[in-house]
Specification:
- With 356 residues, this protein is of the alpha+beta class.
- It has a single domain, classed as Extracellular Endonuclease, subunit A (Extracellular Endonuclease, Chain A, 3-Layer(aba) Sandwich), CATH 3.40.570.10.
- It has 9 helices and 19 strands.
- InterPro entries: DNA/RNA_non-sp_Endonuclease_sf (IPR044929), Endo_G_ENPP1-like_dom (IPR001604), ENPP1-3/EXOG-like_nuc-like (IPR020821), His-Me_finger_sf (IPR044925), Non-specific_endonuclease (IPR040255).
- It comes from Tremella mesenterica (Jelly fungus).
- GO terms for molecular function: metal ion binding; nucleic acid binding; RNA endonuclease activity; single-stranded DNA endodeoxyribonuclease activity.
Length: 356
C-alpha cells in the first residue's frame, strides 16, 4: 500500500498535509495556508514597474501587465479564472459523503431552483464573462448545439444555498456541446466522481478545460475552437478533463476513528491513495462508451494545460484509480424525463440554457 514521506501539497486551496507515512486530508480552515489575494484592479497611486531587458530596462506605468491569476475561493470550491478565454482555467473541489448529503445539518441544503446565473463582479469588466454573452449565445444556438456547463456542478454544493448559488457565477462556467455530452455523458462522469465517496473518505476533483490539437487533411496539427458571444469573447474548449485524487484508510496499518466524526478515520491514520485522469472531447459521446477509454496520464493533462496539479512525490505514492475501484458510468436520462413531463416542469429553468 502507498505510504508518504515528508512533503506538503497545496493545490487550489485543497490542503493535504503529508507526514511521515501519513496523509492528512482534513485540516481546519484556520490551519490552511493563505491563498494570495488577486491583484487590486485599481489604485489611486500610479504604479511604475521596472522590467530588466538585455539592453537595459523598461519602466511600465500601471504595473506588470499580466497575465493575472484570478484565484477565486467559494464555499464549496476554489477556481482560477482565465481572463483571455473568459472561463475557468481550472476548478477544484473536495467531496465527502457528508458534503454531498441530501440533508446537511440544520436542514440548510441548497435548492437548485433558487439559483440563477450571475456575473462575477470581482473580475474587471473588460475581462468578465457577461450574461449578455450567454444571451446572444442562446439566440445564436436556438437548438442548443452548445449549452453552459458548470465547472463545479450544483449537485456537488448542496451543503447550503450560498454554496449552490456560488456555482452559478460565470467564472465557474464554460460552454459544452449539449445533447450527448453536457446533458448526458459529462453528467454521468460528474455522478461517477460523487459516487467515489462511497468507497473513499476524501475525493479531490480538478475540472480542467483543454484546447488540444487535431491533425488536419494537410498533415499539420492545429488547435481549432469556437468563440461565442456578441462580440465573440467566450472560448469553447475542445476537451474537458477530470483529475481525481481519492484517499481511504489503509487497513494494513492500525486505524482509529476521528474524534469529531466517528464515521471517518482520524487524520493520524495512514491512507491509501488513488489518482486518475479522464480527458473527454467536447462532443457527443455515446451512452455506451467505456469510461476507461478516456483515461489519460495526469502528466498529459498538466502538460496540455500548463498546470501542476499534484507534486511528483504524491503521484508516485498513488495507485491508478481504476485499478482499485470500478470506473463505470451510470446512464441516467434525467433531461428526457423532464421533456416527457412537459413545459410546466421546465418552466423553472433559467432562460440561459444549461445543465448543472
Amino acid at each position: 500500500m502507498p505510504t508518504l514521506g515528508p512533503s506538503l501539497l497545496f493545490a487550489a486551496g485543497l490542503t493535504l498535509g503529508i507526514g511521515a507515512g501519513v496523509l492528512y486530508p482534513r485540516r481546519s480552515r484556520d490551519e490552511l495556508p493563505p491563498i494570495p489575494p488577486p491583484p487590486p484592479t485599481s489604485s489611486k497611486k500610479e504604479i511604475i514597474k521596472s522590467i530588466a531587458l538585455p539592453s537595459g530596462s523598461v519602466r511600465l506605468h500601471g504595473g506588470f501587465p499580466g497575465p493575472t491569476p484570478d484565484i477565486i475561493q467559494r464555499t464549496a470550491y476554489t477556481a482560477a479564472y482565465d481572463r483571455r478565454l473568459r472561463h475557468p482555467a481550472w476548478t477544484a473541489e473536495h467531496l465527502t459523503a457528508a458534503s454531498l448529503a441530501k440533508t446537511p445539518p440544520l436542514n440548510l441544503n441548497g435548492d437548485r431552483s433558487k439559483s440563477v446565473f450571475m456575473e462575477d463582479e470581482g473580475i474587471p469588466e473588460m475581462f468578465r464573462a457577461k450574461l449578455s454573452d450567454c444571451a446572444s449565445f442562446s439566440s445564436i444556438y436556438p437548438s442548443a448545439t452548445h449549452v453552459l456547463t458548470i465547472g463545479v456542478p450544483a449537485a456537488d454544493a448542496k451543503i447550503s444555498q450560498q454554496a449552490m448559488d456560488e456555482t452559478f457565477f460565470l467564472t465557474n462556467i464554460a460552454p459544452q456541446v449539449g445533447d450527448g455530452f453536457n446533458r448526458h455523458y459529462w453528467a454521468y462522469v460528474e455522478d461517477f466522481c460523487r459516487r467515489l465517496t462511497t468507497n473513499f473518505e476524501d475525493v479531490y476533483v480538478f475540472t480542467v478545460p483543454l484546447y488540444l490539437p487535431s491533425r488536419h487533411p494537410d498533415g499539420k496539427w492545429r488547435v481549432v475552437y469556437e468563440v461565442i458571444g456578441d462580440p465573440p469573447s467566450v472560448s469553447v474548449p475542445t476537451h474537458f478533463a477530470k483529475v481525481v485524487l481519492a484517499s481511504r484508510p489503509d487497513f494494513s496499518y492500525p486505524q482509529s476513528p476521528s474524534k469529531g466524526d466517528k464515521m471517518v478515520t482520524a487524520t493520524s491514520s495512514v491512507k491509501e491513495l488513488a489518482m486518475g485522469a479522464f480527458v473527454l472531447p467536447n462532443q457527443e459521446i455515446p451512452d455506451g462508451a467505456d469510461l476507461r477509454s478516456f483515461i489519460a496520464p495526469v502528466e498529459s493533462v498538466e502538460r496540455a494545460s500548463g498546470l501542476q496539479l499534484f507534486n511528483t512525490n504524491l503521484k508516485s505514492k498513488s495507485r491508478q484509480l481504476c485499478a482499485v475501484t470500478q470506473c463505470q458510468v451510470i446512464v441516467r436520462r434525467f433531461d428526457d424525463a423532464r421533456k416527457e413531463l412537459g413545459p410546466s416542469v421546465q418552466g423553472r429553468k433559467s432562460s440561459v440554457k444549461e445543465r448543472s
